[in-house]
Automatic annotation (TrEMBL):
This is Uncharacterized protein. Residues 24-121 form the Inhibitor I9 domain. One of its GO terms (molecular function) is serine-type endopeptidase activity. GO terms for cellular component: extracellular region. The active site is at 159 (charge relay system), 233 (charge relay system), 587 (charge relay system). The keyword Hydrolase applies. Residues 708-802 form the Subtilisin-like protease fibronectin type-III domain. Belongs to the peptidase S8 family. Residues 1-19 form the signal peptide.
Amino acid sequence: MKLLAHSVFLLLLMLCTNASDEQVYIVTLHGSPAIHKFSGNGGSPRARARLFTTRSATVAYTAELVARHDNLLSGIFTSSSYKKLYSYSHVLNGFAVQLTSKQADALRSLPGVRRLEKDCRVVKLTTHTPEFLGLSTGAWPREGGPTNAGEGVVIGIIDTGIDPTHPSFSVKGSVAYPPLEDFHGKCEENGGSPGFSCNGKIIAAQHFAAAAQAAGAFNSSNDFASPLDGDGHGSHTASIAAGNHGVFVSNDGFYFGEASGMAPRARISVYKALYRQFGGFMSDVVAAIDQAAKDGVDVLSLSVGPSSPPSSSRVTYLNAFDVALLSAVKAGVFVVQAAGNGGPYPRTMASFSPWIMSVAAGLDDRNYSNSIYLGNGAKLTGAGLAPATPGDQMYNLVLAEDALANTSGFSFSPSNCQQPGVLNKTLIQGKILLCTYSFSFIYGASTVKRVSDTAKNLGAVGFVLLAKTDLPGNKFNPVPLGMPGIVITNVQDSLFLLDYYNASNGGSDAWAKIGNGMNPTFQGTAPQVALYSSRGPGVKDYTLQDSDILKPNILGPGSLIWGAWSPIGTDEPDFQGEHFAMMSGTSMATPHIAGVAALIRQAHPDWSPAAIASAMMTTALVTDNKGQPLLAQHYSSSGGVDLIQATPFDFGSGAINATAALDPGLVFDAKYEDYISFLCSVTQTDHTQVMNVTGSSCGVKGTSTSALNTPSITLSSLVASRSVTRSVTNVAGVAETYILSYVEPPGISMQVSPQSFPIEAGKSVAFSVGFKVAAPITGEYSFGSLVLRGDKGHLVRIPLAIRAAAR
């Protein structure tokens, strides 16, 4: 059990390495990658279809690019003085190579070289959610039920690999998975130790570790030179997106319901680029993106991104990672990325670019709580996914410090109850053991599971873990336990219990019983934005200047999510040896959105990535299950957690509404050329910079970044007044007339034109929105919304985030 604010293992942080003169560089060259050369005008699956209809030419062209890369390097360096790790030929034209800084300078000066970036190291940052999202009664029936939901769609997962033997990915008893004509991924059969095999559900799997090996960080005996998941995180995210329907979830001998992925019939293509001991390297991740685009995945789910805007690029959108994903989008791949776990602080986004769906994490309405009943009649609540103490009687309490045996030679504080040998079994047997939660559980190796094991080994009937002092982000994940136990997370309640113990004749007259915490409750306000979820506004460069792009984009379930786990995984000590784990983070929210995207792609195979994103965003919910505005967790002045009204910088367009997203009425579409125009409009960017990283010419510079046709309007600096134009396309299949209405952001006056319009099926209509500063400038953002109501029942909503500025 760890504090969620510390759960950075659920995201991937980027840290540039400069430890020695020899470094891996990502090099971009003149000339188009295959996607740019063969996919034509990007932004739809037709682009990918064209890529595969020219497959023989594509293969020949990529082979030519690889040869060029090799010739370039061998023409300037001796073969023993460098090591090429990858050739990138689909999303980038370039390679990753290990060089000295002097060699890098020489390579940078060559005419055909556009850009060199230093490689960056990355380290690691459901049983109920299908019902919570309404899939079982809404989206799934539209797709033919859970046995067909996601059929024919491939979700690529870039993570720590997968456990192919897990029941969430089994094909036993299921209808056979036919081959997919437009998918060309491969499986590393027995590619490492232990071996690995695909089965049709897992349609392809590869691992990428060249940069890790070059750095000397890869250990084949621990990290597995295969797609096998030695961590657990990759299996968890894959099962959320596309795990089988109706999988029994058990942990520590207890049953917790049945799990299902969001798109249970979708295929999974695995790209392992992260490892349990050290994380990974960005050049390996870019290689995975390149392979996924080459294979032909429909959806790409990533829990990887920087902890801050990349300093190697003046603009956040122009690093190799984001540019590679832009090329994937050009080929029709829908890309979804975790927003980050830097919340609740502003400008902590780890996902920047408008062509990427950035996902914030929310809490749903399922909670696991427990209670302890004291002999003085008091009842205290806490976290404890554990059974009750036997019978209805009370048991004597004993504090760990009052039951010491031998403290020499032990590495943990006795009060943390991590080692049974430090405590006296005779004094503990048949009692409830009181232990202390400390920083060792956050930054050290202490775990709640080990407390449970200690209590069990000493013959205790249960245990209580007390938080006696405020700790950062006092918010706990309940851990499934095989014996009665509870964590008292409230400091005042913990001190109350200690006072009761100390006043009871040295503890001999202190009695208690622990309730049953195995059954979840479905109460309270939901969804809410989780405390740890990163917040906007989005930034456009490493100086944290605000962008005119709304980030995050959408809110998905991310807290207390059950999913598959690798029993050999070491990512979380509390789940070692288990096949299922309950995790929290934006990494858990991301595959929820990836799975919903697969359902939309199945229903609308001709929609572009931008159209899929628009469908989710314009139909998202901005009210909770009680009909009230969404709330977000924030720190209170006392260090606790308060709930305040959320804004688009907390949740983007709102909480995902999977069923409505299948029939949005209108979509805001955008093509690859629109994203290039956006890049050319960023004030810190010159035309040469865009050409160097994308290979595309700016032509006439765009007028404003806010002109990009997104399903939101963000103005980080409104001086006096401005008009913004948006275009919508009717995807409902029938003609409809829409009326426009709006809620003005405080201090801003608005006008829309036209105020209503008819729109034929398949046609597009443009409208303009005028904004004018109407109150004294405060320097703060204000928020509003624009709603388009159709006479056939469609409702299209886009959020507004406006900040007035002086001239």
